[in-house]
Amino acid sequence: MKNFKNDEVWFITGSQHLYGTETLKQVEGNSKIIAKYLQKNKNISVKVTFKALLTTPEEIYNLCQSANQSETCVGLIVWMHTFSPAKMWINGLKILNKPILHLHTQFNSTIPWGQIDMDFMNLNQSAHGGREFGFINTRMRINRKVVVGHWKDEAIIESINVWTRVAASWKATQSMKIARFGDNMREVAVTEGDKVAAQIKFGYSVNGFGLGDLVHHIKEVSEKAITQTVADYLETYEVLKPLQKNGKKHQSLREAAKIEIGLRSFLETGGFTAFTNTFENLTGLAQLPGIAVQRLMAEGYGFGAEGDWKTAALVRTMKVMGAGLTGGNSFMEDYTYHFNPTNMAVLGAHMLEICPSIADSRPICAIHPLGIGGKADPVRLIFNAPAGPALNASIIDLGNRFRLLVNTVDAIPPEADLPKLPVASVLWKPHPDLKTAAAAWILAGGAHHTCYSQNLNPAYLIDFAEMADIELILIDKAINIPSFKKELQWNELYYHLNNGLK
Length: 502
Ligand code: MN
What we know:
By secondary structure, the chain is an alpha/beta fold. It has helices at 20-40, 57-69, 90-95, 118-123, 126-139, 154-174, 195-202, 211-219, 223-236, 250-270, 291-299, 309-321, 434-443, 458-468, 481-501; strands at 8-14, 47-54, 73-80, 100-104, 145-148, 177-181, 205-209, 238-239, 274-276, 302-304, 329-338, 345-349, 364-367, 379-382, 388-397, 402-412, 425-430, 449-453, 471-475. The chain is elongated, with a radius of gyration of 25 Å. Bound molecules: manganese (II) ion (MN). Manganese (II) ion binds next to loops.
């Protein structure tokens, strides 16, 4: 999985010439100290590089141009150490196409009461310099993240870390290629959408392939490669008896391995980082890819079932955001409810395709009939997910815009074992409670498919929505249905008028 090796954030400081060289030297020195602190901080995952002290419109414009062209720069952290007249920033900001984090901090954490004089006041002007920079961004309707506080504050560091991870995922999203095997599950509405609008908004491209294109790669797979992958299965998972060597169904395990290797080869050859399939279109495949999809997701690929390219893209983006963090991200579906009045919960699962990155223990590798689609029994990994905080996220196409929905949840242990359930599953209690959360999700048009995340909190998706400039609907402990309905109504109006404001 991606580890941000090719990503960096540029640290930029704004000032002006009025203060003289001595002061500017100090401004630059202090900026370097802060940038270095951020760079060395273990809690910030993406490299932070001090890039420039900017004091003229030309310098600002040139810097923004270089940022746009840079392959590695995922965004700018901008700090106003002093006042920096913001008309100087207009031409640069006009062309900048990288995300901005406005760090509203100052070098000193507290006021030196006994020593403070006018020199100190002239040097440390973030409090009003940051407001001037804020005005021009707001005046130009530029989305950005504003982070306020002393730069050594742990909460500030975490805000910066979240944003750097999201900025890196935004870069990955903009060049993502999604392979769509077959089309949509017939007659399903929410998995459809405008792929052209999505590419304009998110940058990723979605292209369809016939199953024959995939089958070609699967046919090329050697017996030796299959044997190696099967050995990996036997070592990594609790492979059930019928699938083991000499077991009645061992050939099915080999077939599943063959599909996995062929699928990976197709994706690698085409430079795809996400894909979809549909059980209604499997011509040439012996079984619906189960373990293959599960393992590819665990490697970092985005996936959406039934042709769901929006969720495939979201799963990939969230996997990049969460790279290296404890816990995983998986394709998910709200499957069935537990309406126990004292313990209402949702059982999340899918036909097969849940990512083992969210598993609570060594997955069981098993084979069962699918009961839908009329193909041979597919091999799959079965597991539960650990209890703890998590969230579900979903992107829908509302015709005039994309809406990102986020619902925070608490995963809980099942009340009893589920010995007959032949798929991976998670049980969770949505916030604020099942009745309110499900009503809100349904009123907002949220899909049945989501990305379930154990290692991202809403802050990540809020930053993502800002960068992508899309609507974000948060369903958390704070919501209630009457105000939620009003939020949806106001948003309809806002997004209807929004294009006219820009
Ligand atoms: Mn589904």
